[in-house]
């Protein structure tokens, strides 16, 4: 954003031009004499002048976009070498002439005048006896009575009308008494402050939680409910020595706010034009804004990625999984890794005989329609849920500094926008029919130790040392694009799959390939070097030997984050060709339909490779 205003406003300290009044119907106001934080009724601000807050933190003035044609009134950090706009008054009503001015209107409102006379933009009208415009050190521009600066009696404040940025101490959310909803709206583009397509709002119901909206009807990101210290879907949002997060939820107000604990720290939360929520902090030594956090930050952050009763697991090859006791509603789409249809119950609920299954480390479902009581115990919560046949899940509502959970949230109906975490999240108890419950708990115990290898086939191919990870991960991007052009607009098969798989082997990172095609003609196979495989299998040690398959020995490969996979080391004389192999792969795509928790891999050794799969017996 450093591009702004190479020639934009600079403070005009010297010129003092006095007009007392004119005989015309409108009065020409005198210009400001010095950079002050206050604009009086008798003054106006021209394009070359600015207001500077008393502590020299923020500055208000006109700025223009690159081409210098449109002028906007904005607030930026006074001290920073790069101009970072945090608020824009007339974002949808730029002025075109350099003789534009800003002043107090007749109704205690801030007005921006084009050519001195026509009003291009105005804040809301009100009544006041002696109003002034003042730029506060918090970055808040207020209209108040000259001798009454108490925040409760501000006539108007820019903090109530945010643009794309939330500053420390600024509220995001609702004044329930007046119906005022403060939310962020993205800029249309990096150099275009007019209202963009994305807005970031707080939903006062349930949790409460925040959502990123595209337009009026599509949610792209949900933070999950507030759980006392953070939003459950933002696990790294921990109170720190730098930032303090608050959510106030009472009869009058529901809002989210953050504060910096050390005044020398600068931090801002903003929605970028592409709909990504970003927190930046200023790093004085390097003179740059550091991206502290952003969201959505992975595929599982996309709103309701896996539909009702599905949850998203970034650690899994196929990120969408159904909660135990549920199966994919649309098997075909699910196999193609489009989880948006979600899952459905295997067994109908009975009410009286139902039980609850615990899911750990979850981002709990969207809570807008949920019942929340922050003073109930989890035991009371369970019995309340048990008694209500419509209740589908319950969980605690709050966690304290010591990690102790309390309170109660009760969901009825579909559970949506869930994901699992490796670290973070909370316990969620989901209602299941008694029969599913028995099955789920026995398979849970069973699967821990008895991962059974199902070796479905092997083929030889002379291509040096390769490891192929299948599960239909890699299809030629071009084929995909041609065949699914429309779908790709929303669901893009991500590039760099080879790197991602390598990452998994080396770092346990996530493979997220959203969409595959069952009948694709071509498969693009990723390469791995032998060292990587040798490392993961501890040099094919006998300790890691899982069993003997049709064409060779199978080894357990341990990834850094504890993820397991299997590698098959082919015996030299298993003579099969690449065509058979690819056919096998295609078949596997169909085969894996609906098998939750099934992961398929292709392993290789020396000049041969084979296809193997591990099946979690569920
Ligand atoms: C405008 O009015 C304020 C207070 O009423 C006064 O302090 C200030 O000097 C005036 N400014 C000019 C330019 O006359
Ligand atoms: C603003 O300042 C520039 C030079 O710094 C000058 O050319 C221009 O006329 C000034 N505009 C106004 C409205 O005073
Ligand atoms: C402020 O003005 C806008 C339109 O300019 C109007 O929609 C809104 O209701 C007004 N708010 C108040 C509190 O008067
Ligand atoms: C906003 O959305 C509309 C309709 O969906 C689209 O045509 C337009 O390009 C989008 N604008 C931006 C800046 O993304
Ligand atoms: C965080 O902010 C809240 C609300 O303003 C305040 O009550 C609390 O004391 C703050 N915590 C710290 C550590 O400053
Ligand atoms: C705030 O940060 C500055 C710079 O990092 C440091 O010098 C100062 O001691 C900090 N103040 C407090 C109260 O922590
Ligand atoms: C997520 O996937 C990983 C890897 O497959 C698995 O170990 C883990 O149990 C899964 N988490 C849940 C909650 O199923
Ligand atoms: C919340 O639970 C407490 C304790 O069980 C109870 O006293 C209170 O009435 C409940 N509040 C609501 C709104 O249900
Ligand atoms: C359960 O849901 C049904 C349909 O949504 C509704 O008619 C009924 O009143 C609900 N029962 C309870 C106890 O809330």
TrEMBL record:
Residues in Apple domain copies: 351-433
Membrane topology: Single-pass type I membrane protein
Organism: Nepenthes gracilis
Amino acids binding ATP: 568
Reactions it catalyzes: L-seryl-[protein] + ATP = O-phospho-L-seryl-[protein] + ADP + H(+); L-threonyl-[protein] + ATP = O-phospho-L-threonyl-[protein] + ADP + H(+)
Protein name (record): non-specific serine/threonine protein kinase
Protein keywords: ATP-binding, Cell membrane, Disulfide bond, Glycoprotein, Kinase, Lectin, Membrane, Nucleotide-binding, Phosphoprotein, Receptor, Serine/threonine-protein kinase, Signal, Transferase, Transmembrane, Transmembrane helix
UniProt domain Protein kinase: residue ranges: 540-618
Main location: membrane
EC number: 2.7.11.1
Pfam families, A to Z: B_lectin, PAN_2, S_locus_glycop
Localization annotation: Cell membrane
GO molecular function: ATP binding; carbohydrate binding; protein serine/threonine kinase activity
């Amino acid at each position: 954003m450093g591009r702004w205003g190479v020639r934009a406003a600079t403070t005009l300290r010297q010129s003092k031009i006095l007009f007392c009044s004119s005989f015309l119907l409108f009065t020409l106001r005198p210009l400001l004499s010095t950079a002050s934080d206050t604009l009086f009724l008798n003054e106006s601000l021209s394009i070359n002048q600015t207001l500077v807050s008393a502590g020299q933190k923020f500055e208000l003035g006109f700025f223009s976009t690159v081409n210098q044609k449109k002028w906007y009134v904005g607030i930026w950090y006074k001290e920073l070498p790069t101009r970072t706009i945090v608020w824009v008054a007339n974002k949808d009503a730029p002025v075109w002439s350099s003789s534009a001015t800003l002043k107090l209107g007749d109704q205690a409102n801030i007005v921006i005048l084009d050519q001195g006379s026509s009003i291009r933009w105005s804040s809301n009208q009100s009544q006041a006896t002696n109003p002034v415009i003042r730029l506060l050190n918090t970055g808040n521009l207020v209209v108040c009575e000259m001798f009454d600066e108490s925040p409760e009696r501000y006539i108007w404040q820019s903090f109530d009308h945010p643009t794309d940025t939330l500053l420390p101490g600024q509220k995001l959310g609702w004044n329930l008494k007046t119906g005022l909803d403060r939310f962020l709206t993205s800029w249309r583009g990096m150099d275009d402050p007019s209202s963009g397509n994305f807005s970031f709002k707080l939903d006062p119901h349930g949790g409460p939680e925040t959502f990123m909206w595209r337009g009026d009807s599509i949610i792209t990101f949900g933070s999950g409910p507030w759980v006392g210290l953070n939003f459950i879907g933002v696990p790294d949002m921990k109170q720190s020595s730098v930032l303090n997060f608050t959510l106030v939820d009472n009869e009058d107000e529901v809002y989210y706010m953050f504060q910096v604990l050390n005044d020398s720290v600068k931090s801002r939360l903003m929605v970028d034009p592409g709909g990504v929520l970003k927190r930046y902090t200023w790093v004085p030594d390097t003179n740059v804004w550091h991206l502290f956090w952003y969201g959505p930050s992975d595929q599982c952050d996309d709103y309701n990625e896996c539909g009702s009763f599905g949850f998203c697991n970034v650690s899994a090859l196929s990120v969408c999984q159904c909660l135990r006791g549920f199966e994919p509603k649309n098997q075909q789409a699910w196999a193609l890794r489009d989880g948006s249809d979600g899952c459905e119950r295997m067994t109908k609920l009975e009410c009286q005989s139902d039980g609850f299954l615990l899911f750990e480390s979850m981002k709990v479902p969207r809570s807008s329609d949920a019942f929340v009581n922050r003073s109930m115990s989890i035991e009371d919560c369970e019995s309340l849920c048990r008694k209500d046949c419509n209740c589908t899940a319950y969980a605690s509502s709050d966690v304290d500094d010591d990690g102790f959970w309390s309170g109660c949230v009760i969901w009825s109906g579909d559970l949506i926008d869930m994901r699992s975490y490796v670290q973070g999240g909370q316990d969620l108890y989901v209602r299941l029919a008694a029969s599913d419950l028995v099955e789920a708990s026995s398979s849970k115990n069973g699967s821990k130790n008895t991962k059974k290898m199902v070796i479905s086939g092997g083929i030889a191919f002379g291509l040096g040392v390769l490891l192929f990870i299948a599960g239909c991960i890699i299809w030629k991007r071009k084929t995909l694009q041609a065949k699914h052009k429309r779908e790709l607009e929303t669901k893009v098969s991500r590039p760099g799959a080879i790197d991602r798989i390598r990452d998994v082997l080396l770092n346990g990172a996530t493979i997220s390939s959203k969409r595959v095609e069952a009948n694709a003609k071509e498969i693009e196979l990723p390469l791995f070097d032998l060292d990587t495989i040798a490392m993961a299998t501890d040099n094919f040690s006998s300790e890691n030997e899982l069993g003997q398959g049709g064409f060779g020995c199978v080894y357990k490969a341990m990834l850094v984050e504890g993820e397991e996979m299997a590698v098959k080391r082919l015996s030299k004389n298993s003579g099969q060709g690449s065509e058979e192999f690819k056919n096998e792969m295609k078949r596997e795509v169909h085969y894996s339909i609906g098998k939750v928790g099934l992961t398929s891999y292709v392993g290789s050794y020396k000049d041969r490779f084979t296809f193997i799969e591990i099946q979690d017996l569920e």
